[in-house]
Amino acid sequence: MFTGIIEGLGTLKTVKPGNGALQLVVESDFGLDGTKLGDSIAVNGACLTVTRLQGRRFHVDVSPETVEKTTFKHASIGERLNLERAMRLSDRLDGHLVSGHVDGIGRLSDRRTQANAILLTFEVSAELGHYMIKKGSVAVDGVSLTINDCDTTHFQVSIIPHTAEITTVGLKGVGAGVNIETDMIGKYVERFLAGSGKPDSPTTGSGVDMTLLARSGFLD
User: Fold this and answer.
1) I need a surface site. Which of 50, 73, 138, 181 has the fewest CB within 10 A?
2) How many CB atoms lie under 10 A from the CB of residue 62?
3) Could you give the C-alpha distances from 69 to 16, 62, 104, 216, in angstroms and in order?
4) DSSP codes of every residue in 93-124
């Protein structure tokens, strides 16, 4: 589990493809003291397992499913990456709950400056847009951000200079692809209310269902 608060950046040193999967070697800008084999590190928002560790360099395997769902299919040596090691129970939760399981890819469709903020608009599939709401949370390349506005296939966020400086989001140009993870809580709520949760749990009698939420303006 992660928070979406990026710990630091890294550089992609090696990309080894094979049978739809990838093996990556990443060099972190910061020390990896306390990290051990088998630990999870979110790399551009994707939860990956450390399979080998050499100082600040770590090796990870990327499964075919993750390759298909993420921008790793276009990974190139020298690419800068957002890194976050798994949260500890004693940590502050400054961002939001991020699983590191990327839902799909978005594209930066507009970038402009407003006062001290950079406004970024991303285009996503309707499947991803379905789980976004104004003032809700989204992880973009692993960065926890608040949605300013959204519609079925677009959402807008703003980043401050600090975020632009310490993450790769500030480096993105129009047309760039990013990994998107929507808010997991919204997905669990939808599944529960749709009656596809625990089979022996009652789904009626509470007075709250999908029809009520739609009528009340909580669903598009």
Assistant:
1) 73
2) 22
3) 18, 11, 5, 33
4) --S--B-S---EEEEEEEEEEETTEEEEEEE-
